[in-house]
Specification:
CATH architecture of the largest domain in chain B: 3-Layer(aba) Sandwich
Distance between the termini of chain B: 70 Å
CATH class of one domain in chain A: Mainly Alpha
Oligomer: heterodimer
Number of strands of chain A: 0
Strand content of chain B: 15-25%
CATH superfamily of the largest domain in chain B: Periplasmic binding protein-like II
Structural class of chain B: alpha/beta
Helix content of chain A: over 70%
Distance between the termini of chain A: 34 Å
Largest sheet of chain A: none
Shape of chain A: globular
Structural class of chain A: mainly alpha
Order of helices and strands of chain A: HHHHHHHHHHHHHH
Number of helices of chain B: 24
Number of helices of chain A: 14
CATH topology of one domain in chain A: MetI-like fold
Largest sheet of chain B: 7 strands, mixed
CATH architecture of one domain in chain A: Orthogonal Bundle
Number of domains of chain B: 4
Shape of chain B: globular
CATH superfamily of one domain in chain A: MetI-like
Chain lengths: ~260, ~500
């Protein structure tokens, strides 16, 4: 009996953290989203979100950007993760280290370096703002895609693959019918970790000179004009979209996924 | 066991001792009789001392050298002069908006240094504490500000009013400047850089940047869309040219905002980027050919580029230029009617206005101080001379550059005519102390009230966002079908799995 009490108390620091830094800010967000400048309740901000062609346009632009970034990350990460997980060579750890190591370096520093490299390659960054943003974000988020994929694929039960082969499946068939479906949890978890930040991380487009706002910069723009209400509403709607997205893709994979998250 | 106890006791003692010490030092900070002055200034906007030994500014009237920070020097000076200890709690802010947010969230400061429009906002909202009458008493030697402020800045502060009250009552100037275009003369002619229309100039296609803040971008855009009118003979020759110019540059009518938005949208497709801080670096590394810049930062960029033998120049557009300044404002929330504190705050301003301290700041920050030193003190003029005067042996065609306006209010004043290289009339000196015609076409940009602010921000968002109306309808149909299909498939598989 005593033991369970002790365990309960272990949760107190986190509970305090949760209340102070997760629940309280959310309440403040709700309050601002549903009030106007005079402090009265209003749904105007909500209506404004869906009737303003700028907000919708920015949402679509951010979605398109996030989609492309996620696809590019997936296309690059999957083969690497597959090769690393299935091969038997000893220096695996070194290769994985090579992918994780960039995350130890401050990311604005990495972006500054990337800016110089891209300028050397392209001559002028401003000609391809969208592509540059995709490159910058891919550079930034790639490890978040590789690691979950690697984890899932390396835990794959080899006997299943052997069974498939015994039953007459070719290499391609084995991959499509066994490996790919079984690595879905990794794909979903990797996608969630890349797609969501790609929609809002405005430091990347800012530093690589993309003059078109994405969702994060739009919120920032409202805040710097002291318009907390519209900014909060956009943040709130974005939060709901993300929750919806996670519910649709994640709910069932959630149970199968084990330690796939970083 | 004994040993354990002894060491435990020792550790406890050490801790208690440490505690007592830290407690004592805290107490001494708030000791009775000592004034705590909370000052909030821009980052890197005051001489922090610690100069290298070869950095001595050797003027005719004596050497100037920054050994300690000006804040420390002030504390010593105040104690020596008034026999009263002052502790300055010095902190920094990044943007005017950030400072305002801090103040509205309840942070209390005694003395802050915002820009012109934020000073007006603080004044109009009744947050500013007026300077005392004593501060303006010219007979007192220690009133360095009122005795040393440039007549030109003094006039600006006297002539402009907010809600019937003069700026000078609530604000004391610190640094000032104009806005213009810093450009690479090999890629853009001076004539092309001397108009706000430069942002749509195809010669610098994707090689020009503008500030990523709505006020600066808007000033430039107003100048661009009204260019023809502002440069017409009728307008230039009108009697009340200065007032009319200020009205035009502060025009926030719906029609003007629409024009400004259209112009900025056009410019967006021609710009390299909207920059917050990277403009100087991109200019120095040659990534861009031209950049909207404040005069002080332009001086810095030109100096840095020159170290690599890369020559940049500064031009002020013919239409108009934004005369801006940062100034010290006392806050009611901080001062709380405490006369001793107010005196310390005013003395801080006066201390920074001592000519040699103004020079130290100018050297350290690179901006122009509002202090000219008054009639008897030539330190500031000597510093400009030390910086820019041409060496007659090396210079083939030196030119005369009149600076009297900043010192006596008269451009023709023969005591203040500097001989400089011809280059300086297009470069650092031109940026730091612009000639008469530039000052004549300068306009102060007023603050926006709440409604205007919302309107202007809307315009800015229209410029920066990807508008959904630009997407053809078939795309939405496709998107709808794809989304619907996707959701259908997901739900179907889920139902299947359940069964």
């Amino acid at each position: 009996m005593k033991k369970t009490f002790a365990r309960k108390y272990l949760g107190i620091p986190y509970a305090i953290f949760l209340v102070l830094f997760v629940i309280a800010p959310l309440l403040v967000l709700f309050y601002y989203a549903f009030t106007n400048a005079t402090g009265h309740f209003t749904v105007e901000n909500l209506i404004g979100f869906f009737t303003d062609s700028n907000t919708i346009g920015t949402l679509l632009y951010s979605l398109a950007l996030a989609l492309v970034v996620t696809l590019v990350c997936l296309v690059i990460a999957y083969p690497i993760a597959y090769v690393l997980a299935r091969s038997r060579f000893n220096s695996k750890g070194v290769v994985i280290m090579l992918f994780v190591m960039p995350m130890w370096i401050n990311f604005t520093l990495r972006l500054t370096a990337l800016k110089e490299i891209l300028t050397a390659v392209e001559g002028n960054l401003a000609f391809h703002p969208f592509i540059n943003t995709v490159i910058g974000m891919t550079y930034d988020f790639l490890p978040f895609m590789i690691l979950p994929l690697y984890n899932t694929i390396s835990k794959l039960d080899g006997s299943l693959l052997e069974a498939a082969r015994d039953l007459g499946a070719g290499d391609i068939q084995v991959f499509l019918k066994v490996t790919l479906p079984l690595s879905m949890p990794g794909i979903v978890s990797g996608t969630a970790m890349v797609f969501l930040p790609a929609m809002t991380n405005y430091v990347v487009p800012d530093m690589l000179y993309n003059s078109t706002y994405i969702m994060g910069s739009l919120i920032g723009s409202y805040f710097s004009a002291y318009d907390w209400h519209n900014g909060s509403m956009i943040a709130l709607v974005l939060l709901l979209i993300i929750v919806l997205f996670t519910l649709l893709t994640g709910s069932e994979e959630e149970e199968k996924r084990g330690g796939a998250l970083l | 066991m004994k040993r354990f106890l002894a060491s435990a006791l020792l550790i406890t003692l050490v801790f208690i001792n440490l505690d007592a010490k830290s407690f004592a030092s805290e107490e001494s900070e708030a000791a009775p009789g000592e004034i705590v002055l909370k000052v909030c200034n821009w980052e890197e906007y005051i001489d922090e001392g610690d100069w290298d030994e070869d950095e001595v500014i050797d003027l005719e009237s004596g050497d100037i050298f920054g050994e300690n920070s000006l804040v420390e020097d002030f504390e010593d000076w105040y104690y020596e002069t008034y026999g009263q200890k002052v502790k300055v709690q010095y902190s920094c802010f990044g943007t005017n908006e950030e400072l305002y947010s801090m103040l509205t969230m309840g942070d209390e400061y005694d003395l802050v240094c915002p820009s012109d429009y934020m000073i007006m906002k603080l004044m109009s909202e009744g947050m500013a504490e007026p300077f005392s009458e004593e501060f303006f008493d010219e007979t007192k030697e220690e009133n360095y500000y009122i005795n040393g402020v440039s007549p030109f800045i003094r006039e600006v502060f006297e002539e402009n009013e907010i809600g019937g009250e003069k700026w000078s009552k609530y604000a004391a100037g610190y640094m000032w400047g104009v806005t213009g275009i810093i450009y690479n003369p090999e890629m853009l002619s001076r004539e092309e850089a001397s108009t706000w229309n430069v942002f749509t100039n195809k010669n610098v296609y994707r090689r020009i940047t503008i500030k990523d803040n709505v006020r600066d971008a808007m000033f430039a855009a107003i100048g661009a869309v009204k260019s023809d009118y502002l440069l017409s003979d009728g307008f230039l020759g009108s009697d009340d040219y200065s007032e009319k110019l200020m009205d035009e540059m502060n025009d926030v009518s719906d029609e003007t905002l629409t024009d400004v938005q259209n112009y900025l949208q056009l410019a967006k497709d021609n710009l390299y980027s909207f920059e917050t801080d990277s403009g100087k670096a991109d200019m120095i590394t040659g990534k861009v050919a031209a950049n909207y810049q404040w005069s002080g930062d332009a001086v810095y960029a030109m100096e840095q580029a020159e170290e690599d033998d890369f020559i940049l120049e500064f031009a002020v557009p013919e239409e108009s230029t934004n005369l801006w300044f940062d100034g010290w404002v006392m806050l009611k929330d901080g001062i709380k009617g405490d006369a001793a504190k107010k005196h310390a705050a005013e003395s801080f301003v006066n201390f920074l206005s001592m000519p040699e301290n103004a020079v130290r700041n100018m050297y350290y920050i690179g901006y122009s101080s509002v202090i000219s030193g008054g009639e008897d003190d030539d330190t500031v003029y000597e510093y400009i001379k030390w910086n820019y005067e041409a060496d007659p042996e090396e210079e083939e065609e030196p030119v005369e550059y009149p600076l009297g306006f900043y010192f006596t209010g008269d451009y023709e004043d023969e005591d203040y005519i500097l001989t400089v290289s011809e280059q300086q009339t297009r470069r650092m000196l031109y940026a730091q102390y612009p000639p008469k015609e530039v000052i004549d076409r300068s306009a102060v940009m007023l603050y926006f009230d709440t409604d205007t602010n919302a309107k202007v921000n809307r315009m800015w968002i229209n410029v920066r966002c990807f508008n959904a109306k630009r997407i053809p309808i078939w795309f939405y149909c496709l998107l709808g079908v794809l989304l619907g299909g996707g959701i259908f498939v997901v739900i179907r598989t889920k139902i299947k799995n359940r069964m």
